[in-house]
Each structure stands twice: as structure tokens, then as C-alpha cells.
Amino acid sequence: MAAFSSNEDIQLVTFFLEGEEYGVDVMRVREITGMTEITKTANSPHYVKGVINLRGVIVPIVSLRSRLGMPEALDDSASCIAVTDFNGELTGFVIDEISDVIRLRQGELQPAPDAAGQPWIEGIFFQADHKMVVLLNLEPFC
After folding, report:
1. What is the pLDDT of residues 87-138, one digit of tens each?
2. What is the torsion angle, in degrees rounded to the nearest 10, for the CA atoms of residue 31, residue 35, residue 37 and residue 41?
3. What count of Cα atoms within 13 Å lies in the side-chain half-sphere of residue 106?
4. What is the third-level CATH fold of 9-141?
5. How far, in Å, CA of 18 to CA of 6, rounded?
6. What predicted TM-score, i.e. pTM, was given to this entire model?
7. Rounded CA gap, 108 and 132, in Å?
8. How many CB atoms neighbour CB 123 within 10 A?
């Protein structure tokens, strides 16, 4: 879980998966890139789509939908890859569509309900239009 002070602003990249909006700490996202050819890898878990060559660096690509137990997208024309960096290790996550970069106060973030039982959910917040956004920690998926 990210260590934020209650007065600290958090900047998030938000994106859609199956019509719901999610966010991740912008400091964890190295770049967003369009879909590219993904080379399949043998004997990988079902959620690992394969690898890409990102300017000479081989990056594993994970279907975030599959990893979260969602069905694959029927229309992936807006899909892109969010390349994350956790301790120098790059992992790309296929997302349905990039949404926005937003800033909120740490105090606006509500803890995830215990019933969610999913350690990768860091919290939930509501935007001005009352839309719910789920803050994810993608590190366990790398």
C-alpha cells in the first residue's frame, strides 16, 4: 500500500476496465503506449498475454481484465498498454481505455471495504460527478 500523508496530494492515472473506472499512482506508470504486437510465451498463466520489445527492453504484458477475473474485451480498438515500474521491473498492463490524470487529497481516499478481500485495492474515491473510482496497487500482479 502506498504511504501517503493525509495532507498530501495524490496524482492518479485513471482508466476503464469493463466500463468501470480505476486509478493507479502516476509515479508507478512509466508510460502509456498503444497496442502493439505481443509475442506469446509458452506455459504462461492465462492472464499473461506475452511480451513486447519496448525500445530494446523485453516487457511482460498482463491482461488486467483476466488478472481481475473479468471477461476479455469484445472491442479492443481503444485498448492500450500501461507500462509500470516497480523497483526497476517493468510490466505492461492491457487496459480498455485511458481516462484521465487527476489529483486528489489523500483525505478524499476511503479505505476499501473489508468485504472486498482484495489486497490490491488501496482505496475508493468519488469524483465531483459522484462516479466511483477504485485505486489499485498493481505491484502484486507484476
Report:
1. 999 999 999 999 999 999 888 899 887 756 688 898 999 987 888 999 999 9
2. 70
3. 9
4. OB fold (Dihydrolipoamide Acetyltransferase, E2P) (2.40.50)
5. 31
6. 0.87
7. 12
8. 20
For residue 37, give the C-alpha cell. Answer: 504486437
CA–CA separation, 142 and 139 (whole Å)? 5
Q: Report CA torsion sign: 79, 123, 30, 7.
A: positive
Burial of 133 (0-12, 13-18, 19+ CB in 10 A): buried
**How would you list the strands of the sheet with 20-25, edge to edge?**
97-105, 9-17, 20-25, 132-136, 121-126
Domains of the chain, residue spans: 9-141
